[in-house]
Amino acid sequence: MKAILIKDVNKIGKKGEMVEVKQGYFRNYLEPHNLAIEANKANVEIWEKDQKEKRAKEKEDRKSAIELKDKLENITLKVKAKSGEDGKLFGSITNKNIQQALKDEHNIDVDKKKIIVSDNIKEVGEQVVEVKVYPEINARLKVIVEAK
User: Which pTM was predicted?
Assistant: First the structure.
C-alpha cells in the first residue's frame, strides 16, 4: 500500500515522500506513531500541491543562490591584518574574519560554516576561497590580505 511520510523513517524514506509499504507495517507501526498517513485520493491531492509548492520554492532558492554566486565572484574582498616585515601575519585570517568582512564591506551575510578556507590564511597576498552558496553551487571569492 502507498503511504505519505509525515516524519523521516529509517530505511523507509524522508518526510514528504510517498512510499510503498506493507499494510501491516503501516497499520501497526507507521500510523499509530504518527509517522505516515494513508495515500488516499484526498491526501494525494494535498501531497501533490505541497510537492508543487516545494519545487517552486526550490527553483526560487536556486535562482537567488546563482545570483549570490555571481555577486560573490565579482567581488574582491580586502581584509587588513597586522603583519611582520616579511609578509607573515600575526595570527591568521579564518572563515569568521572573511564572513565579518563580507558583512561589513558588502552587506552580504553568509554563514561562516559555508566559507571553505583550505588552510587559514597566514600571509599577505591574494587567496581564492570557496563559498558554498547552495547544494552543488559554489562561488570562488577572491580575498586580498593587506598589512595594517
Answer: 0.71
